[in-house]
Amino acid sequence: MQKLSVFYGGSSGRDDAIDMTTRSMLQVMRELAAFVRVPESDLAQGRVAPGLVSDVQPEEPASKPPLAILCGDAAPKDAYVAVHYGGRWSGFPTRTSSPSTGSPS
């Protein structure tokens, strides 16, 4: 049996170690927020910053966002979860998003 050490926060440069970098809950939430498809009206009013999700979806599965979060005036159809907050609906679709509408196809 081989003994391995765990090092947090960077590379140890050792062959007998597992290097691990952790994230705070705030960092995780910021990463997830980048995949929210926000309404154009909110962008125009400066209420939100644009995320990483665009209306043009790549063909390669590996290039697609790992998560889809929809946001709009209507409740998302066929969603795992949907939340109504501040006059908007947000939710996780159960299927792949349609590039043209941002809603489940």
Helical fraction = 10-25%
The geometry reads as elongated
Please state how the strands of the largest beta sheet are arranged side by side: 3-4-6-5
Give the distance, in angstroms, between the N- and C-terminal Cα atoms.
50 Å
Q: Compute the gyration radius: what is it?
A: 19 Å
- Flag low-confidence runs: 97-105
Number of helices: 2
Mean pLDDT: 77
Descriptive account of the structure:
With 105 residues, this protein is of the alpha/beta class. The chain has a domain at 23-93. The chain is built from two helices and six strands; from the N terminus they run E-E-H-E-H-E-E-E. The chain has helices at residues 25-33, 40-44; strands at residues 5-8, 17-20, 36-37, 69-72, 79-85, 88-93. A four-stranded mixed beta sheet has the order 3-4-6-5, with no helix packed on it. A hairpin with a 2-residue loop joins strand 5 and strand 6 (88-93). The chain is elongated and about 55 Å long.
Quick take:
The protein has about 100 residues and is an alpha/beta fold. Helices cover about 15% and strands about 25% of the residues. The protein has a domain at about 25-95.
